[in-house]
Design brief:
- The chain has 13 helices and twelve strands.
- Strand 1 and strand 2 form a beta hairpin.
- It has about 425 residues and is α/β, with parallel strands linked by helices.
- Helix 1 crosses helix 2 and helix 6 crosses helix 13.
Length: about 425
Protein backbone atom coordinates (compact mmCIF):
# COMPACT_ATOMS: atom_id res chain seq x y z
CA UNK A 1 0.00 0.00 0.00
CA UNK A 2 1.48 3.35 -1.04
CA UNK A 3 0.50 6.93 -0.47
CA UNK A 4 0.57 9.45 -3.31
CA UNK A 5 0.69 13.20 -3.07
CA UNK A 6 -2.95 13.96 -3.81
CA UNK A 7 -3.65 15.91 -0.63
CA UNK A 8 -2.63 19.49 -0.05
CA UNK A 9 -1.17 20.55 3.23
CA UNK A 10 -3.90 21.11 5.79
CA UNK A 11 -3.98 23.46 8.73
CA UNK A 12 -0.41 24.53 7.93
CA UNK A 13 0.84 27.35 10.11
CA UNK A 14 4.19 28.44 11.43
CA UNK A 15 4.52 27.56 15.07
CA UNK A 16 7.04 29.38 17.18
CA UNK A 17 9.70 27.22 18.79
CA UNK A 18 9.84 26.90 22.55
CA UNK A 19 12.74 26.02 24.78
CA UNK A 20 12.68 22.59 26.40
CA UNK A 21 10.39 22.63 29.41
CA UNK A 22 8.62 25.83 28.40
CA UNK A 23 4.95 26.08 29.24
CA UNK A 24 2.64 27.63 26.71
CA UNK A 25 -0.79 29.02 27.41
CA UNK A 26 -2.64 27.81 24.34
CA UNK A 27 -4.77 30.62 23.00
CA UNK A 28 -5.82 31.71 19.57
CA UNK A 29 -3.21 34.07 18.23
CA UNK A 30 -1.20 34.38 21.45
CA UNK A 31 0.98 32.18 23.61
CA UNK A 32 2.96 32.67 26.78
CA UNK A 33 6.10 30.66 27.51
CA UNK A 34 8.02 30.55 30.76
CA UNK A 35 10.48 28.48 32.74
CA UNK A 36 9.40 25.76 35.12
CA UNK A 37 12.81 25.43 36.71
CA UNK A 38 11.96 27.26 39.97
CA UNK A 39 8.24 26.73 40.22
CA UNK A 40 8.61 24.80 43.48
CA UNK A 41 9.24 28.14 45.20
CA UNK A 42 5.77 29.55 44.67
CA UNK A 43 2.17 28.31 44.39
CA UNK A 44 1.35 26.33 41.26
CA UNK A 45 -1.43 28.71 40.32
CA UNK A 46 1.17 31.54 40.13
CA UNK A 47 3.06 29.84 37.27
CA UNK A 48 1.39 31.72 34.36
CA UNK A 49 1.54 35.00 36.21
CA UNK A 50 5.33 35.16 36.27
CA UNK A 51 5.37 34.84 32.47
CA UNK A 52 4.60 38.55 32.43
CA UNK A 53 6.94 39.53 35.25
CA UNK A 54 10.44 38.50 34.30
CA UNK A 55 13.56 40.42 33.37
CA UNK A 56 13.78 44.19 33.63
CA UNK A 57 10.10 44.67 34.33
CA UNK A 58 10.20 42.44 37.40
CA UNK A 59 13.19 44.34 38.75
CA UNK A 60 11.39 47.65 38.16
CA UNK A 61 8.44 46.34 40.13
CA UNK A 62 10.70 45.01 42.86
CA UNK A 63 12.54 48.34 43.03
CA UNK A 64 9.27 50.19 43.29
CA UNK A 65 8.06 47.90 46.09
CA UNK A 66 11.35 47.58 47.97
CA UNK A 67 11.95 43.92 47.09
CA UNK A 68 14.38 42.28 44.71
CA UNK A 69 13.87 39.61 42.06
CA UNK A 70 16.39 37.57 40.09
CA UNK A 71 16.96 38.77 36.56
CA UNK A 72 16.08 35.32 35.18
CA UNK A 73 12.57 35.24 36.57
CA UNK A 74 13.33 33.77 39.98
CA UNK A 75 10.39 33.71 42.36
CA UNK A 76 10.04 36.78 44.58
CA UNK A 77 10.68 36.50 48.28
CA UNK A 78 7.50 35.72 50.19
CA UNK A 79 8.08 38.77 52.34
CA UNK A 80 7.87 41.84 50.15
CA UNK A 81 10.30 44.46 51.35
CA UNK A 82 13.03 41.98 52.28
CA UNK A 83 15.83 41.92 49.67
CA UNK A 84 17.07 38.69 48.11
CA UNK A 85 20.61 37.48 47.44
CA UNK A 86 22.20 40.33 49.36
CA UNK A 87 20.72 42.99 47.07
CA UNK A 88 19.40 46.10 48.76
CA UNK A 89 17.39 49.12 47.83
CA UNK A 90 18.49 52.04 50.02
CA UNK A 91 15.82 54.22 51.45
CA UNK A 92 15.93 57.77 50.18
CA UNK A 93 13.83 60.83 50.35
CA UNK A 94 11.83 61.40 47.22
CA UNK A 95 9.72 64.11 45.76
CA UNK A 96 6.00 63.63 45.37
CA UNK A 97 6.55 63.25 41.61
CA UNK A 98 8.99 60.38 42.14
CA UNK A 99 6.60 58.73 44.56
CA UNK A 100 3.77 59.07 42.04
CA UNK A 101 5.96 57.55 39.33
CA UNK A 102 6.72 54.59 41.55
CA UNK A 103 3.04 54.08 42.27
CA UNK A 104 2.28 54.13 38.56
CA UNK A 105 4.97 51.48 37.92
CA UNK A 106 3.53 49.27 40.65
CA UNK A 107 0.00 49.73 39.32
CA UNK A 108 1.03 48.90 35.76
CA UNK A 109 2.85 45.73 36.73
CA UNK A 110 0.13 44.58 39.09
CA UNK A 111 -2.30 44.98 36.18
CA UNK A 112 0.00 42.83 34.03
CA UNK A 113 0.32 40.35 36.89
CA UNK A 114 -3.45 40.03 37.15
CA UNK A 115 -3.72 39.48 33.40
CA UNK A 116 -1.34 36.53 33.62
CA UNK A 117 -2.93 35.05 36.74
CA UNK A 118 -5.89 33.09 35.30
CA UNK A 119 -4.97 29.86 37.07
CA UNK A 120 -5.61 31.44 40.49
CA UNK A 121 -9.03 32.71 39.53
CA UNK A 122 -12.01 30.74 40.77
CA UNK A 123 -13.85 31.83 37.63
CA UNK A 124 -11.34 30.51 35.09
CA UNK A 125 -10.74 26.76 35.16
CA UNK A 126 -7.33 25.68 33.91
CA UNK A 127 -5.73 22.45 32.76
CA UNK A 128 -2.02 21.70 32.35
CA UNK A 129 -1.06 19.18 29.68
CA UNK A 130 2.34 17.77 28.81
CA UNK A 131 2.31 16.58 25.21
CA UNK A 132 4.84 14.70 23.13
CA UNK A 133 2.63 14.94 20.07
CA UNK A 134 4.07 17.41 17.55
CA UNK A 135 3.04 20.95 18.44
CA UNK A 136 2.18 21.57 14.79
CA UNK A 137 -0.68 19.06 15.13
CA UNK A 138 -1.56 19.23 18.83
CA UNK A 139 -1.80 22.98 19.31
CA UNK A 140 -4.91 23.47 17.08
CA UNK A 141 -6.63 20.58 18.88
CA UNK A 142 -5.99 22.17 22.26
CA UNK A 143 -7.08 25.58 20.98
CA UNK A 144 -10.42 24.11 19.92
CA UNK A 145 -10.93 22.50 23.33
CA UNK A 146 -10.27 25.85 24.97
CA UNK A 147 -12.74 27.60 22.69
CA UNK A 148 -15.47 25.00 23.25
CA UNK A 149 -15.13 24.69 27.03
CA UNK A 150 -13.68 27.97 28.27
CA UNK A 151 -11.00 25.99 30.12
CA UNK A 152 -7.57 27.56 29.72
CA UNK A 153 -4.95 25.15 28.42
CA UNK A 154 -1.34 25.39 29.56
CA UNK A 155 0.73 23.09 27.35
CA UNK A 156 4.27 21.83 27.73
CA UNK A 157 5.64 20.51 24.43
CA UNK A 158 8.61 18.23 23.99
CA UNK A 159 11.50 18.81 21.61
CA UNK A 160 12.58 16.73 18.64
CA UNK A 161 15.91 16.02 20.31
CA UNK A 162 14.42 14.84 23.60
CA UNK A 163 11.48 13.00 22.04
CA UNK A 164 9.04 11.66 24.62
CA UNK A 165 11.78 10.85 27.13
CA UNK A 166 12.29 14.43 28.29
CA UNK A 167 8.66 14.89 29.34
CA UNK A 168 8.53 11.47 30.98
CA UNK A 169 11.62 12.26 33.05
CA UNK A 170 10.09 15.62 34.03
CA UNK A 171 6.89 13.94 35.18
CA UNK A 172 8.86 11.44 37.25
CA UNK A 173 10.89 14.28 38.80
CA UNK A 174 7.66 16.09 39.69
CA UNK A 175 6.01 13.04 41.27
CA UNK A 176 5.97 14.48 44.79
CA UNK A 177 4.31 17.69 43.59
CA UNK A 178 2.70 17.21 40.17
CA UNK A 179 2.37 20.23 37.87
CA UNK A 180 0.58 18.45 35.03
CA UNK A 181 -2.98 17.16 34.86
CA UNK A 182 -2.82 15.25 31.58
CA UNK A 183 -0.12 13.51 29.58
CA UNK A 184 -0.69 13.21 25.82
CA UNK A 185 1.99 10.92 24.47
CA UNK A 186 2.65 10.13 20.81
CA UNK A 187 3.43 6.51 21.68
CA UNK A 188 2.63 4.01 24.43
CA UNK A 189 5.71 2.41 25.99
CA UNK A 190 6.80 5.49 27.93
CA UNK A 191 3.22 5.98 29.12
CA UNK A 192 3.31 2.48 30.60
CA UNK A 193 6.60 3.42 32.26
CA UNK A 194 4.75 6.25 34.04
CA UNK A 195 2.01 3.81 35.03
CA UNK A 196 4.59 1.48 36.54
CA UNK A 197 6.02 4.43 38.48
CA UNK A 198 2.62 5.05 40.06
CA UNK A 199 2.16 8.40 38.33
CA UNK A 200 -1.12 7.73 36.51
CA UNK A 201 -4.61 7.86 37.99
CA UNK A 202 -7.17 5.40 36.66
CA UNK A 203 -9.93 7.11 34.68
CA UNK A 204 -12.54 5.22 32.69
CA UNK A 205 -13.32 7.88 30.11
CA UNK A 206 -16.70 7.48 28.38
CA UNK A 207 -15.15 7.77 24.90
CA UNK A 208 -12.65 5.02 25.71
CA UNK A 209 -15.39 2.39 25.42
CA UNK A 210 -15.18 2.39 21.61
CA UNK A 211 -11.40 1.90 21.49
CA UNK A 212 -10.32 -1.74 20.91
CA UNK A 213 -8.99 -3.47 24.00
CA UNK A 214 -5.56 -3.99 22.42
CA UNK A 215 -5.01 -0.23 22.55
CA UNK A 216 -5.98 0.60 26.14
CA UNK A 217 -5.08 -0.35 29.67
CA UNK A 218 -7.60 -2.79 31.19
CA UNK A 219 -7.35 -0.86 34.47
CA UNK A 220 -8.01 2.47 32.69
CA UNK A 221 -4.67 4.14 33.42
CA UNK A 222 -4.24 5.10 29.76
CA UNK A 223 -6.14 4.93 26.49
CA UNK A 224 -4.82 4.83 22.94
CA UNK A 225 -6.18 6.76 19.99
CA UNK A 226 -5.07 7.99 16.54
CA UNK A 227 -2.30 5.51 15.72
CA UNK A 228 0.71 5.71 13.43
CA UNK A 229 2.22 2.79 11.53
CA UNK A 230 5.88 1.88 11.18
CA UNK A 231 6.46 1.89 7.43
CA UNK A 232 9.06 1.44 4.74
CA UNK A 233 9.89 4.66 2.89
CA UNK A 234 11.80 4.35 -0.38
CA UNK A 235 13.29 6.61 -3.02
CA UNK A 236 11.42 6.10 -6.29
CA UNK A 237 14.53 7.03 -8.31
CA UNK A 238 16.66 4.36 -6.64
CA UNK A 239 14.28 1.48 -5.97
CA UNK A 240 12.70 -0.56 -8.74
CA UNK A 241 12.02 -3.76 -6.80
CA UNK A 242 10.39 -2.65 -3.58
CA UNK A 243 11.23 -4.25 -0.23
CA UNK A 244 8.28 -5.73 1.63
CA UNK A 245 9.63 -6.66 5.06
CA UNK A 246 11.76 -5.10 7.76
CA UNK A 247 13.87 -8.26 7.42
CA UNK A 248 14.87 -7.02 3.95
CA UNK A 249 17.21 -4.67 5.81
CA UNK A 250 19.42 -7.75 6.21
CA UNK A 251 19.50 -8.56 2.48
CA UNK A 252 23.08 -8.16 1.14
CA UNK A 253 21.78 -6.48 -2.03
CA UNK A 254 20.85 -3.49 0.14
CA UNK A 255 24.18 -3.30 1.96
CA UNK A 256 25.07 0.30 2.89
CA UNK A 257 21.87 1.58 1.24
CA UNK A 258 19.35 1.71 4.10
CA UNK A 259 18.69 3.71 7.27
CA UNK A 260 16.71 3.58 10.52
CA UNK A 261 16.54 5.83 13.58
CA UNK A 262 18.59 5.07 16.69
CA UNK A 263 16.30 2.82 18.78
CA UNK A 264 16.66 4.67 22.07
CA UNK A 265 13.91 7.25 21.71
CA UNK A 266 10.41 7.71 20.36
CA UNK A 267 8.62 5.21 18.17
CA UNK A 268 11.83 3.49 17.07
CA UNK A 269 12.50 2.55 20.70
CA UNK A 270 8.95 1.24 20.88
CA UNK A 271 9.52 -0.75 17.67
CA UNK A 272 12.72 -2.27 19.03
CA UNK A 273 11.07 -3.17 22.34
CA UNK A 274 8.20 -4.75 20.42
CA UNK A 275 10.60 -6.96 18.47
CA UNK A 276 12.36 -8.07 21.66
CA UNK A 277 8.99 -8.88 23.22
CA UNK A 278 7.53 -10.74 20.23
CA UNK A 279 10.60 -12.43 18.77
CA UNK A 280 12.48 -13.08 21.99
CA UNK A 281 15.80 -11.58 23.04
CA UNK A 282 18.05 -13.87 20.99
CA UNK A 283 16.30 -13.35 17.65
CA UNK A 284 15.97 -9.62 18.22
CA UNK A 285 19.65 -9.24 19.13
CA UNK A 286 20.63 -11.20 16.03
CA UNK A 287 18.45 -8.91 13.92
CA UNK A 288 20.06 -5.71 15.20
CA UNK A 289 23.57 -7.10 14.93
CA UNK A 290 22.70 -8.06 11.35
CA UNK A 291 21.63 -4.48 10.65
CA UNK A 292 25.03 -3.25 11.75
CA UNK A 293 26.86 -5.85 9.68
CA UNK A 294 24.82 -4.97 6.59
CA UNK A 295 25.76 -1.31 6.83
CA UNK A 296 22.39 0.06 7.94
CA UNK A 297 22.84 3.70 8.98
CA UNK A 298 21.46 4.72 12.38
CA UNK A 299 20.22 8.31 12.20
CA UNK A 300 19.06 10.76 14.92
CA UNK A 301 15.34 10.37 14.21
CA UNK A 302 12.55 9.35 11.86
CA UNK A 303 12.54 12.76 10.18
CA UNK A 304 16.20 12.45 9.15
CA UNK A 305 15.47 8.99 7.74
CA UNK A 306 12.78 10.49 5.53
CA UNK A 307 14.99 13.40 4.50
CA UNK A 308 18.06 11.33 3.70
CA UNK A 309 16.04 8.80 1.70
CA UNK A 310 14.37 11.67 -0.14
CA UNK A 311 17.77 13.22 -0.87
CA UNK A 312 19.00 9.96 -2.39
CA UNK A 313 21.58 9.27 0.32
CA UNK A 314 19.83 5.96 0.98
CA UNK A 315 17.54 3.79 -1.10
CA UNK A 316 15.06 3.11 1.68
CA UNK A 317 14.52 2.98 5.41
CA UNK A 318 12.03 2.73 8.27
CA UNK A 319 9.98 5.63 9.60
CA UNK A 320 6.44 6.50 10.72
CA UNK A 321 3.44 7.25 8.54
CA UNK A 322 3.35 10.93 9.51
CA UNK A 323 6.96 11.49 8.44
CA UNK A 324 6.61 9.37 5.32
CA UNK A 325 3.44 11.07 4.13
CA UNK A 326 4.95 14.45 4.88
CA UNK A 327 7.78 13.60 2.50
CA UNK A 328 5.29 12.70 -0.21
CA UNK A 329 3.30 15.89 0.26
CA UNK A 330 6.49 17.96 0.30
CA UNK A 331 7.33 16.67 -3.18
CA UNK A 332 10.24 14.39 -2.29
CA UNK A 333 10.80 11.47 -4.69
CA UNK A 334 9.50 8.98 -2.14
CA UNK A 335 6.69 6.51 -1.59
CA UNK A 336 5.90 4.31 1.37
CA UNK A 337 4.30 0.98 2.14
CA UNK A 338 3.20 -1.17 5.06
CA UNK A 339 5.78 -3.89 5.73
CA UNK A 340 5.13 -7.57 6.50
CA UNK A 341 1.49 -7.59 5.50
CA UNK A 342 1.86 -11.22 4.42
CA UNK A 343 3.80 -12.18 7.54
CA UNK A 344 3.73 -10.98 11.18
CA UNK A 345 2.13 -7.65 10.35
CA UNK A 346 2.88 -3.94 10.69
CA UNK A 347 3.41 -2.33 14.07
CA UNK A 348 0.74 0.22 14.96
CA UNK A 349 1.69 2.72 17.66
CA UNK A 350 -1.16 4.74 19.15
CA UNK A 351 -1.13 8.12 20.76
CA UNK A 352 -1.99 7.68 24.43
CA UNK A 353 -3.63 9.95 26.95
CA UNK A 354 -3.54 9.61 30.73
CA UNK A 355 -4.57 11.46 33.88
CA UNK A 356 -1.71 12.40 36.20
CA UNK A 357 -2.09 11.21 39.79
CA UNK A 358 -2.56 14.17 42.12
CA UNK A 359 -2.56 16.80 39.40
CA UNK A 360 -3.79 20.29 40.37
CA UNK A 361 -6.86 20.30 38.08
CA UNK A 362 -8.26 16.78 37.96
CA UNK A 363 -11.80 17.67 36.88
CA UNK A 364 -10.59 19.79 33.97
CA UNK A 365 -8.06 17.07 33.12
CA UNK A 366 -10.85 14.53 32.76
CA UNK A 367 -12.73 16.89 30.46
CA UNK A 368 -9.67 17.26 28.26
CA UNK A 369 -9.18 13.48 28.10
CA UNK A 370 -12.83 13.04 27.10
CA UNK A 371 -12.29 15.52 24.29
CA UNK A 372 -9.05 13.97 23.02
CA UNK A 373 -10.73 10.55 22.81
CA UNK A 374 -13.72 11.92 20.90
CA UNK A 375 -14.48 10.85 17.32
CA UNK A 376 -14.07 14.52 16.37
CA UNK A 377 -10.39 14.56 17.36
CA UNK A 378 -9.57 11.20 15.74
CA UNK A 379 -11.20 12.32 12.51
CA UNK A 380 -9.35 15.63 12.62
CA UNK A 381 -5.94 14.00 13.17
CA UNK A 382 -6.68 11.54 10.37
CA UNK A 383 -7.44 14.38 7.97
CA UNK A 384 -4.11 16.15 8.49
CA UNK A 385 -0.90 15.35 6.63
CA UNK A 386 0.04 13.08 9.55
CA UNK A 387 -2.81 10.79 8.39
CA UNK A 388 -3.18 9.24 11.84
CA UNK A 389 -5.21 6.05 11.94
CA UNK A 390 -8.52 6.24 13.85
CA UNK A 391 -8.87 3.39 16.34
CA UNK A 392 -12.54 4.01 16.99
CA UNK A 393 -14.24 1.84 14.32
CA UNK A 394 -17.08 4.34 14.09
CA UNK A 395 -14.73 7.03 12.76
CA UNK A 396 -14.71 6.93 8.98
CA UNK A 397 -12.53 9.35 7.02
CA UNK A 398 -13.15 9.57 3.30
CA UNK A 399 -10.14 8.63 1.15
CA UNK A 400 -7.97 7.81 4.15
CA UNK A 401 -5.16 5.54 2.88
CA UNK A 402 -5.04 3.40 6.04
CA UNK A 403 -8.44 2.13 7.17
CA UNK A 404 -7.63 0.02 10.19
CA UNK A 405 -9.85 -2.84 9.11
CA UNK A 406 -7.60 -3.38 6.06
CA UNK A 407 -4.30 -3.45 7.97
CA UNK A 408 -2.64 -6.66 9.13
CA UNK A 409 -1.40 -5.38 12.47
CA UNK A 410 1.48 -6.92 14.39
CA UNK A 411 0.01 -8.55 17.51
CA UNK A 412 1.63 -7.03 20.55
CA UNK A 413 1.27 -6.93 24.30
CA UNK A 414 2.35 -3.36 25.00
CA UNK A 415 3.00 -4.13 28.66
CA UNK A 416 5.38 -6.92 27.67
CA UNK A 417 7.11 -4.54 25.24
CA UNK A 418 7.47 -1.90 27.95
CA UNK A 419 9.38 -4.38 30.09
CA UNK A 420 11.92 -4.74 27.26
CA UNK A 421 12.75 -1.05 27.02
CA UNK A 422 15.72 -1.25 29.38
CA UNK A 423 16.88 -4.46 27.69
CA UNK A 424 17.00 -2.64 24.35
CA UNK A 425 18.89 0.32 25.81
CA UNK A 426 21.47 -1.89 27.54
CA UNK A 427 21.96 -3.98 24.42
CA UNK A 428 22.39 -0.92 22.24
CA UNK A 429 24.89 0.82 24.47
CA UNK A 430 26.93 -2.36 24.86
CA UNK A 431 27.11 -3.22 21.17
CA UNK A 432 26.65 0.01 19.21
CA UNK A 433 28.17 2.89 21.16
Amino acid sequence: MTRSSEKSHQERAKISAHEPGAVTRSTVGRAQSFSLERQDQFPRCWIPAFAGMTGTGAVMLADAMGASVGMNGDAPNASIGRPLRGMSFPRRRESSIATLARCLIVSAWLAAFSFFLPACSNNTPTVVIYTAHDEYYSRPILDTFEEQTGIRVLAVYDTEAAKTTGLVNRLIAEKARPRADVFWNNEVIQTIRLQNEGLLEAYDAPNAAAIPNAFKDPEHHWTGFAARARVIIYNTNLVTERPHSIRDLLDPKWKDQTAVAIPLFGTTATHAAALFAEWGDDEAREFFVGLKENGVAFLPGNGPVRDRVGAGDFAWGLTDTDDANGGVEDGLPVQWLLPDQDDFGTLLIPNTVALIQGGPNTAAGKQLIDYLLSPEVEARLAGLRSIQIPLNPAVKVEDHPLPIEEIVAMPLDFNAAAKKLDTVADFWRTNFE
